[in-house]
Amino acid sequence: MTDLPPQMPCAGVDYPNTFGQFQDWFSTDDACLEYLAKLRWPDGFLCPKCGAGEYWRTGAGLWMCRGCSRRTSVTAGTIFDRTRTPMRTWFAAVWFVTSQKNGVSALGLQRVLGLSSYETAWAWMHKLRRAMVRPDREVLSGTVEVDESFIGGVASGKPGLGPDKISVLVAAEHLDHNRIGRIRLEPGPADRRLALVKFGQRVVAPGSTIRRDGATQLRRFAKLGYEHEYFTQLGSDIPAHVNMPAVHMAASQLKRWIDGTLHQGISKAQLAYYLDEFTFRFNRRTSASRGLLFYRLLQQAVNTGPKPLKNLVRSAFTD
Asked: What is the mean pLDDT of the chain?
């Protein structure tokens, strides 16, 4: 087996805190591949075919299993699968995406990396977005506010759903002193009947307290294993954002992020992935190091399956 060079960081413990450190650690493709290997196989290499852990490295940089002689690439089966771009360029993309507090648009990524086309930058951004949220992530708990918000154009005289507005379901943990914990976001379905009830069941742990307005259908939460606190807004002098500050703060920041970073340039078909990116950033907003976000995104990228361009493009035009 090949020992890691002494200057390599220990994945999960060390990650670059500055751009200078990033450049020092990941100046070559070999260094990037070694780092990915530690992320993909934190307990040591395991052959995907026979499960053996003994290997040797080929001249082409592959992992050759001593048990069955299968050659394995550390990028195979990940979002980097079959890429022809140097890994150090991919690492630069991940660093740039995570080191910017509000993220970056595809056009911004194309410019900073000098990519040949906007399509390439767009595809990279969407590959990374698909790695930002783990399917097995923990659900919300404690006191959780659940509500529906709307993004898109302003429809005169229509505070709710209008022809240019898109429904977004929002859940946010309400901590003490009106602080906000983690959030979950999903596009609202076409059939809005019981949408918030089903959403709450998916993203909130049973036994938690769900805080919501007084809509009759939402009182079902009390029969589904949740404590249910609700507020009746009709005729009340107390604004909704006072009773449920967490979801309103999350929704407000989402709208500002869409305006400021994406410039309203989102499609309804891709909305779920933009919401995943905002969730990834929001839930890590208090991180002491942007380098930790870089590490987390790479960690999830090597555990996310391939996302071919043709599939990304197809989904972009499929509602």
From this structure: 86
What's the predicted TM-score (pTM) here?
0.85
Give the range among 1-10, 69-78, 197-206 with minimum mean pLDDT: 1-10
Cα gap 25→16, rounded to integer Å: 8
Distance CA 130, CA 307 (A): 8
Confidence label for 192 from pLDDT (cuts 50, 70 and 90) = confident
**Residue 245 half-sphere exposure, CB side, CA atoms within 13 Å?**
9
For 93, the 3-state DSSP assignment is helix
Structure tokens at 155: 């429809």
Kindly state the DSSP code that residue 307 receives in the 8-state scheme: -
Q: What is the DSSP code (8-state) at residue 204?
A: B
Residue 55 tokens read as 């290997």
Give the number of other Cβ atoms within 10 Å of residue 240's Cβ: 14
What separation in angstroms does the CA of 233 have from each of 188, 230, 240, 289? Answer: 22, 10, 7, 41
The residue assigned the tokens 């630069």 is 92
Percent of the chain whose pLDDT exceeds 70: 86
Distance between first and last Cα of the chain: 48
Residue 104 has pLDDT above 70, yes or no: yes
Which residue do the tokens 């009746």 mark? 232
